[in-house]
Design a protein that fits this description.
4-stranded mixed β-sheet, 163 residues, alpha+beta, Immunoglobulin-like
Length: 163
């Protein structure tokens, strides 16, 4: 009888061992690591269990770009697109409203990239005077200022018609 029980116990332990190993393998093969987290799956030699390291890398250094909007002859709302010169990142669209001829917006950007800001919607009756917001090199923990200036276009005075 003892020999029969030993064989049953041995068989049960074998099944449990296979099932546990299979479950662990299935569990660890089903792990998906979201991008951009950098993870490594290594084996702990002492215990033989996996060691999952989900420590993401530190964020890249950033700086700031302050876009100064100047207007001559009035105030309005102006639309802009901010993007990196290489086109790796999608454009960020924003608006600046001027008061007393000035408005501004500050944008946080990754250091080491080159950026530009362009007007996307110029209100009727305005013309571009200057734009210094091209090819801006962002440096970590620094602020770059650039200026876009517009002037109100003089409307022609209607000439009275003789009657």
């Amino acid at each position: 009888m003892d020999e029969f029980m030993d064989k049953k116990l041995f068989a049960l332990l074998c099944v449990l061992s296979i099932f546990t190993s299979l479950a662990v393998t299935v569990f660890f093969n089903a792990i998906t690591i979201p991008s951009p987290a950098h993870a490594s799956l290594s084996s702990n030699k002492t215990l033989g269990s996996p060691n999952l390291n989900l420590n993401p890398p530190p964020p890249p250094p950033t700086g700031w770009i302050t876009v100064i909007k100047k207007t001559i002859g009035g105030d309005d709302i102006f639309g802009f697109a901010f993007n990196d010169v290489g086109g790796l990142n999608p454009a960020y669209n924003f608006q600046i409203r001027t008061f007393g001829g000035t408005g501004l917006d500050a944008i946080q950007a990754y250091a080491g990239f080159t950026y530009s800001v362009k007007e996307t919607s110029l209100p009727s009756g305005w013309g571009l005077v200057s734009n210094t917001c091209n090819n801006l090199q962002v440096v970590a923990d620094q602020t770059i200022e650039c200026t876009i200036t517009n002037a109100k276009i003089a409307q022609p005075t209607p000439v009275p018609t003789a009657q």
